[in-house]
Design goal:
alpha/beta; Leucine-rich repeat, LRR (right-handed beta-alpha superhelix); 2 domains; seven-stranded parallel β-sheet; two-stranded antiparallel ribbon; 14% strand
Length: 231
């Protein structure tokens, strides 16, 4: 029999033999972790209520579980359902231009996430939970109201690009000098008064933007870093 019909909370799901093994693996994982299998339904109901197209968030299980890129920009979202964080194959997540003020701690489950865009939201506090995403390479969080960066930023050892343009930053933590992989940092249009000397430890840094701040002097050590652009 080429197709197997599985019923989940009154929905009939048609699964080809080629996808059956993968589906079984995910369901077994859910059962092992004591997860409620109805999270699919909850997530789909949320997507329907927010008029999110099926091409963006699939309404069938296998494509949903395979999803690697999710764009939830420009949707006027006030919150993100915890069920979203079961999509552990996500590598890119855009929440650009919504009205989010925080992120649930569940985001730490997105262990494969490499790029997240939180720009143009309503964050007043840096979402520290993001610092647990150890494979993150790009963090975009421009045009919010953030004043400080937590010391936990140092755990983002794979981070290559940090974009905090147009926030309310008043200082950078010394721990920012522990972002070993960082290539570009954008702090244009903030309220920074100084640059921490720890920046000189960033051997891969080639672009460091701090124009339109309140910085009076730049540490002379900073000019010894090859190809740093202060513009």
């Amino acid at each position: 029999m080429d197709k197997l019909i599985t019923t989940l909370d009154s929905k009939a799901l048609v699964v080809s033999k080629n996808n059956l093994h993968e589906l079984t693996k995910h369901i077994t994982k859910d059962i092992t972790n004591n997860k409620n299998l109805l999270w699919f339904e909850t997530l789909w109901s949320w997507a329907d209520a927010n008029k999110i197209d099926e091409k963006v968030l699939p309404r069938s299980i296998v494509p949903l579980l395979k999803l690697s890129n999710l764009n939830l920009s420009n949707l006027n979202l006030y919150s993100i359902p915890k069920e979203l964080y079961n999509l552990d194959n996500l590598e890119e997540l855009s929440l650009y231009n919504n009205v989010l003020q925080n992120l649930p701690l569940g985001i730490v489950n997105l262990k494969n996430l490499k790029r997240i865009d939180l720009s143009k939201n309503c964050f007043e506090v840096f979402p520290t939970s993001v610092c647990s995403l150890k494979n993150l390479k790009e963090l975009h969080i421009r045009s919010n109201w953030i004043q400080t960066i937590p010391k936990e930023i140092k755990y983002l050892k794979q981070l290559k690009y940090l974009d905090m343009f147009n926030n309310l930053l008043i200082a950078l933590p010394d721990e920012i000098g522990e972002l070993d992989s960082i290539i570009e940092m954008d702090f244009l249009q903030n309220n920074l008064c100084e640059v921490p000397p720890s920046i000189i430890k960033l051997n891969n840094l080639i672009s460091f933007r701090v124009k339109n701040n309140n910085i009076k002097t730049i540490p002379k050590e900073l000019f010894g870093i090859k190809e740093v652009i202060i513009c």
